[in-house]
Design a protein that fits this description.
The structure holds 2 protein chains of 2 kinds. Chain A is of the alpha/beta class. Chain A has helices at 97-111, 126-139, 151-164, 218-227, 243-250, 279-284, 290-302, 313-325, 341-349, 385-392, 415-433, and strands spanning 12-13, 25-26, 28-31, 34-37, 71-73, 116-120, 144-148, 170-173, 186-190, 201-206, 228-238, 255-259, 272-275, 306-309, 332-334, 355-358, 372-376, 406-410. Chain B has one domain. Classes of the chains: A alpha/beta, B alpha/beta. The complex binds zinc ion (ZN) (3 copies).
Chain lengths: 439, 225
């Protein structure tokens, strides 16, 4: 591809002058009395000014600073892709009957150019459910983006999609990567990266649409809208739709495909709640609930790997120390800013460590074949209903180990915890109607 | 409530009893405590020559190697992961707003220094065009200074941060005196101001030129070491 392809469907600064790009537009422009960034569409503060007189945007600074002296260039998306004659889908797996029905529904809606939502429980195999529709879209020469607010999700997804669509040009984009951008038919990226695109995609698949920070960020929601062609459409994927999305589902304002059963046909592990009197005060004195200790010891003796979720980063060291004190050793702590996060997750997967103590950062996007899940302080505010359902959804995902234990220690039964239990039970009731059974 | 200039989270500034009793507008702190804690102040146990944090108060090994080319430097914070993250965003990403984060500690430090003329280390023309500000003068809040040094026009060079220690030590003189300001240096005690003391090469080049201008003493202050 020539150097111009970098500008197809994007709005980015040019490193050198290229005559074919035309005049371009100023990256930061005056609108009335204020200045506005043309990449992230946020307003500048009156103080966001440099001594050389230029205005600069702080909101999208980490993507490279834009100032009122920067110019952005774009070339309308030409969909210049080579479409092979053989089938696009090189995935050799099979879908269960329930998955196939959902896949047909998603394909049908794409063909009718409709925006849609796929609500499938954790472990339903929602990625594979999208494959037939994606194959159809790619065969038509559509440019497609598969995006997620979570970089972990993108990193896990990219190699799978690469394998499933081997003949399709693909690129993976996220914050700290070093691989340069390449014009591709299929882009896997974080929602943040969409800020560099404009009217590029015929179809955008938004994975984990309810995940932080997308759900609360108008900036990122705007990025999706602008990256989509005016004739384009999108598919939201979620296991735990937020309240706004649930309202839309009830009112039938979004076309929804619903799959309440895991791919292996077993029901979701229930969220067991255990009272732990004043766990927070005890933790301040470096003590863990005795029942929790007993459970974790039993897991260690049985060789059962587990994830222990704690509310905050600052709790990690205390909990790790208390575990050592209780002779529960060998695990490691993980949090969002942890540079070794991926390596630690991999270590647990390969059974090199027996357990991870983690914040909500591992609530989604990670899969371990046989894992027990324990939550300390499920009544803490950081655990939303969706977070608890997602965390519980880490257990029992493998067909070989469909039975997973999920135990949540709380000072008292809060509304959030009860709602999470209710959501899981409700999904299981519907799962049963589709032939789901207890492991 | 106010917003932290670095992480942009809202926070409640700590108010002490003395703040209330002094009856004047409270200074709004630029950083939340979490971001403030990313900086590690250098304690009294530091090298008296370069200001590096260490176990003793003896001249450190690196300074001994400079021998007679002595320069007394004082540094405020350690150049650790937190400071590097700050410099990355402020200097390299060009987030000018972050200058506010270190203005107060710098002001305090300047008040404790004995000098007549403050000379910030300059940036070259290309950096001025791309970055749009001098990261050193960004930390000043109206304290008077003289831009007595300019980067030589012929000085085309990769940034200091991209070099090894050995390469840095071989860097040729990058500065020259601004003739319009040079006379203001005669018989003055000059304090050089820079962001990071790494090998001391840059500051010594600057000091050499300042002495040529007739200064009677040159010391330096850096934000980090
Ligand atoms: Zn912006
Ligand atoms: Zn902060
Ligand atoms: Zn020293």
């Amino acid at each position: 591809m020539n150097e111009l392809s970098e500008f197809f469907g994007r709005r980015i600064p040019a490193k050198a002058a290229i005559p074919q790009l035309g005049a371009g537009m100023l990256a930061v422009q005056p609108v009335g009395q204020r200045y506005r960034c043309q990449r992230c569409q946020q307003w500048l503060a009156p103080t966001d000014r440099l001594p050389n007189g230029a205005w600069y945007c702080r909101q999208c600074l980490e993507m490279g600073r834009l100032t009122s002296q920067t110019k952005l260039y774009t070339i309308p998306e030409p969909n210049r892709f080579a479409i092979p004659a053989e089938p696009m889908l090189t995935w050799t797996g099979t879908l269960s009957d329930n998955q196939q029905r959902a896949a047909d529904a998603v394909l049908h809606l794409v063909q009718r150019r409709q925006n849609q939502l796929l609500w499938a429980v954790t472990g339903a195999g929602k990625t594979e459910i999208v494959y037939p529709a994606l194959a159809w879209a790619l065969a038509r020469g559509w440019r497609v983006a598969w995006v997620s607010p979570r970089v972990d999700v993108c990193l896990e997804l990219a190699p799978r999609i690469q394998q499933a669509f081997r003949t399709t040009s693909q690129c993976l984009l996220y914050g700290e990567q070093s691989i340069p951008y390449a014009y591709s038919q299929l882009t896997v990226c974080t929602t943040h990266q969409l800020l560099r695109f404009e009217r590029a995609f015929d179809w955008i698949i938004v994975d984990e649409v309810d995940a932080f920070p997308l759900a609360t960020s108008p900036l990122l929601q705007g990025a999706i809208t602008r990256a989509e062609k005016t004739t384009g459409q999108h598919l939201y994927l979620t296991a735990t739709p937020g309240e706004a999305l649930q309202r839309q589902i009830r009112r039938h304002t979004v076309a929804t495909t619903y799959l309440p059963l895991r791919y292996h046909g077993f029901l979701l592990p229930r969220l067991r709640v255990r009272l732990a009197w004043r766990w927070r005060e005890a933790l301040a004195k470096h003590r863990l609930p005795p029942a929790l200790i007993r459970r974790l010891r039993a897991y260690r003796q049985a060789g059962q790997r587990f994830l222990l979720f704690v509310p905050h980063v600052r709790d990690l060291t205390t909990v790790m120390a208390a575990l050592r004190q209780a002779d529960i050793c060998g695990g490691v702590g993980v949090h969002a800013a942890d540079e070794q996060r991926t390596a630690k997750v991999q270590a647990l997967r390969e059974q090199r460590v027996p357990f991870l103590v983690t914040t909500t950062i591992l609530e989604r996007g990670v899969t371990f074949p046989n894992i027990a899940v324990v939550i300390l302080g499920g009544d803490d505010g950081v655990f939303s209903t969706a977070a608890l359902v997602q965390i519980a959804g880490r257990a029992g995902r493998s067909a070989d180990f469909p039975k997973g234990e999920v135990t949540c220690y709380v000072q008292s039964q809060t509304r959030t915890v009860r709602q999470a239990q209710r959501m899981i039970d409700q999904l299981n009731r519907q799962g049963k109607q589709r032939g789901g059974r207890w492991p | 409530m106010t917003n932290c200039v670095w992480c942009q989270q809202a926070f409640q500034p700590r108010v002490t009893l003395r703040d209330i009793l002094t009856w004047r507008p409270l200074p709004v702190p630029p950083l939340c405590t979490r971001c403030q804690d990313k900086f590690t102040p250098i304690t009294a146990q530091h090298c008296p020559a370069c200001g590096r944090q260490q176990e003793t108060i003896a001249v450190c090994h690196d300074c001994e190697r400079w021998g007679t080319a002595a320069l007394r430097n004082r540094a405020l914070f350690r150049y650790d992961a937190g400071m590097k993250a700050y410099m990355q965003q402020y200097k390299f990403q060009g987030d000018y707003a972050l200058r506010k984060a270190l203005q107060a500690p710098l002001q305090q430090a300047l008040e404790q220094e004995n000098y007549d003329v403050l000379v910030p280390i300059p940036i070259d023309q290309q950096t001025w065009l791309t970055r749009g500000f001098n990261q050193v003068t960004g930390w000043l809040r109206g304290q008077p200074y003289q831009q007595a040094l300019v980067v030589r026009a012929t000085h085309k060079d990769q940034p200091q941060s991209a070099k090894t220690r050995a390469q840095r030590l071989l860097t040729p003189q990058p500065f020259q005196l601004d003739p319009r300001i040079a006379s203001d240096l005669v018989n003055q005690r000059v304090l050089l101001l820079d962001d990071v003391y790494t090998t001391g090469r840059t500051l010594r080049h600057a000091a050499t030129q300042i002495y040529l201008g007739g200064a009677k003493a040159v010391t330096s202050l850096t934000l980090a070491r």
